[in-house]
Design brief:
about 425 residues, alpha/beta, Rossmann fold, five-stranded mixed beta sheet, binds glutamic acid
Length: about 425
């Protein structure tokens, strides 16, 4: 496989386009499945894309227009499901890719959902709480014609959280004139949220890591872990894995990374971050740059920040033998093949970070039943689903002699395709 040094600017641009990355993974699996051309066409592209312009009254009295998207990739297996992100980097190709990954993710863990994703181009750090609330409510109204507990159910993603979901739930409910808790997941507990939802993605990442170690016969105590990202995915995974006995040697946030080869005291690190708003400055660790962090010596790397972190430009220097993808699309398609060729095992995003949407599914079920489960029940059902999905992906990989990523795509595309064949084309 060619290395980054030999790629032209145009090739690098393509490598960094998440939709093309997704399409590459999809095509590989579709080839192996022998999927016919028509079905490929149907499943590769999103069913619906909505772009909205939202005028917002800013605190200083001016009006600013923000752009938002909601892309519904596929609703063959059930209502669309997927998060909403607020970020200056949001663009249509990214939202498209993320919506498709949600379809495949829900299918890998066999949830009765299709996939969607939303995004608003904004820098939440530059917005006041009032401006954020007005933007969230306006966005909800702008896309609510295509939302609904049986149509499309949003959730948190990058820079959105329980408060955002509470505003969406309230805005939607006020418009339909009844409290509709099942319209979003990842809500506060008091508004119909689920126990265990906040930790679910990080917990799922840990379960995936535990399963991956079983394949190699390694023990958590002997496993040095680098975590990129200290938010709802990376921070939670690092804490839970520290508790499980893993040696977390490095973790990063948006400001930088910290490193201690003998293992970080994760509860102390997270307490430091809570108090200081950043990881750097933590007394018991050295500071390293974002790019150096990924190349540190370690056994397990958990990219849990954003897309395109492991690329043709740094894949050769990654030392981890195992990568568990907490973020969506952190490894480009080219880097993925480079690492696979070197024998590095990658537990792909659509499997590794599926814990979040799995507990979102539990939340939606609980809201519709009006009956709420204990945290023990949520966690044990989550564990069972993750373990079953992991085993199925490994079995598929062995059957077809492919990477876990290609196997996850094969499994999930096959499930969606068979539903499509059963339902037939409506005309
Ligand atoms: N945003 C999360 C993801 O990428 C969760 C989606 C959901 O719970 O619907 O999987």
């Amino acid at each position: 496989m060619s290395s980054g040094a030999t790629l032209s600017d145009a090739q690098l641009r393509d490598e960094y386009n998440p939709f093309l990355s997704m399409a590459k993974g999809f095509d590989q699996a579709a080839d192996i499945l022998g999927l016919d051309e028509g079905l490929r066409e149907v499943l590769r592209q999103p069913e619906r894309e909505l772009k909205v312009a939202m005028p917002i009254l800013m605190d200083d009295g001016t009006v600013k227009v923000f752009t938002g998207y909601r892309v519904q990739h596929n609703f063959l297996r059930g209502p669309c499901k997927g998060g909403i992100r607020f970020s200056p980097d949001v663009n249509l190709d990214e939202v498209r890719a993320l919506s498709a990954w949600m379809t495949w993710k829900c299918s890998v863990v066999n949830l009765p959902f299709g996939g969607a994703k939303g995004g608003v181009i904004c820098d939440p750090r530059e917005l006041s709480q009032g401006e954020l609330e007005r933007l969230t409510r306006r966005y909800t109204v702008a896309i609510m014609d295509i939302l609904g507990p049986d149509r499309d159910v949003p959730a948190p993603d990058m820079n959105t959280g329980e408060q955002t979901m509470a505003w969406i739930m309230d805005t939607y409910s006020m418009h339909v004139r009844r409290t509709t808790t099942a319209i979003v997941t990842g809500k506060p507990l008091a508004l119909g949220g689920s126990r265990g939802r906040r930790e679910a993605t990080g917990r799922g990442v840990m379960i995936a890591a535990n399963k991956a170690l079983q394949l190699t016969g390694d023990r958590p105590e002997d496993t040095r872990v680098i975590v990129q990202g200290a938010g709802n995915v990376g921070g939670v995974a690092a804490l839970l894995m520290h508790r499980e006995g893993y040696k977390v040697t490095s973790i990063s946030d948006m400001y930088g990374a910290i490193h201690n080869e003998t293992g970080l005291d994760m509860p102390a690190v997270m307490a430091w971050m809570r108090d200081h708003g950043r990881l750097t400055g933590f007394p018991d660790a050295a500071e390293v740059s974002h790019s150096d962090q990924l190349e540190l010596d370690c056994d397990l790397l958990i990219p849990a920040a954003t897309e395109n972190q492991i690329t043709s430009l740094n894949a050769d220097r990654i030392k981890a033998k195992l990568i568990v993808e907490g973020a969506n699309g952190p490894t480009t398609a080219i880097a993925s093949s480079m690492l696979h060729d070197r024998g590095v095992v990658i537990v792909p995003d659509i499997l590794a970070n599926a814990g979040g949407v799995t507990v979102s599914y539990f939340e939606w079920v609980q809201d519709r039943m009006g009956y709420f489960w204990t945290e023990e029940i949520v966690n044990s059902r989550l564990e069972q689903i993750m373990i079953d999905a992991f085993n199925e992906v490994v079995k598929t990989a062995e059957e077809h002699k492919v990477s876990l990523r290609t196997a996850a795509y094969i499994l999930s595309i096959d499930r969606v395709a068979s539903v499509y064949r059963l339902r037939g084309i409506f005309a």
